[in-house]
Batch of 2 targets.
Target 1
Amino acid sequence: MIPLVHDLADETVLIFGGGDVGARKARRFAREARVVVVAPAFTAEAYGGAERVREAPAPADVPDWFDRVGPALAVAATDDEAVNDAVEEAARERGVLVNRADHAGPREAGSVVVPATVRDGEVVVAISTGATSPALARELKRRIAAEIDGTGELAALTAAIREELKAEGVDPGARRRAVAAVVESPAVWKDLGEEGSNPRRTADAVVDAALGAHE
């Protein structure tokens, strides 16, 4: 499988199953998309603001839910394999991405795996072990979270610098070198998140030095 980043803004995610797995999926996708969860009961505490519909669909009822909701992604997270099979079949017939939460290992074409993720602002790192070791994915997530602390701020900072240099007419090669110098600067990294520091001021000094070195 090849990892991709999918923009689900203004899209709908349809989840079958209201247990802990369905709730976890709902919280994940509700950050960006409209989420509809269909289940006979909702046993978790939080669903991220998803729409919850209390219903126990039989396999024959599943296609109607697809037609009513029009999802971009469907999640099969029930404890009924027949219902999960119906979700997968309905998704494939309609060209909709599908995530089988009850299956591990190799997937059919069109299937997606929802990886463990670490987020700092707009910086997102996805972790997958091919469903072979959830424990390893959790440990990697813990370690990576510490490594990327502050990178969201740095991403926003370098985006602003890049746009400003572009507006000033700095040529693309020089812009790339200047931004690279900022993200590689130990001084900038040290200032990120440090109380009383000024990462922007430090970054501007790095940019000036990088541009001056190639004049």
Target 2
Amino acid sequence: MNNQLRQILVVSSFAMTIIVNALANILPINGITTGDLSDSIPNYFVPAAYVFSIWAVIYLLVGAFTVYQALPAQKNNGLLKQIAPWFILSNIANTMWIILWHYQFVGLSLIAMLVILSALIAIYWQLGTGRYTVKREEWFFLRLPFSVYLGWITVATVANVTSVLVVGGWDGFGLPEPLWSAIMIVVATVVGGLIAVRHRDIAYVSVLVWAFVGIAVKFSDVLPVAVTAVVMAVIVALLPFVLPNRSVGLAAAD
């Protein structure tokens, strides 16, 4: 891919994502907002409304990455060449998720969510987070945005799976919904914990803690959910520190 074309496609695909996400709530698409659709599906895994403000942080950080990669000095950056196709794919999948979700194709929306998750995992791996140190510039414009983004999509994927099961009428083998939600919180902790332990990524872990606390706040009167969310938040917060100290690139080198 031509370097200049790559930069243009990265900017264009991100702009498309921002516009569609904005229209989803301004119009809104199909006459209902993204949050209202989430609330219409009984799901004990969805956190309190304030937690979704993290999207503003994600888009600011990813926007900073988008501007950074478009700079003339980054035109021949080999690492940016590697992650660009995955980033473009994640933006296309993000846009498709909004459309599918708003038209209530919940099952198909999960496929789009899994594409986003897979693309972000590919980017995360290529960035080498947790494997070696980098300059502060690279940490801020590349690693930080995708650590936060991946952290949130980890949570969103589990929530999406739960929504698909609810809409599909799954009875959870007869177990109460709060208990199944508690199990899903543990599942999210295991998935996130693998990254937390291997990469000791504080930004990624912080997003999981933010989401789990938000679940506990929303369902404070549902003890199995609230207690599990709080306990898992504490566990996942401690996981990055269970290994002996080593250089992981969080405090980026100059």
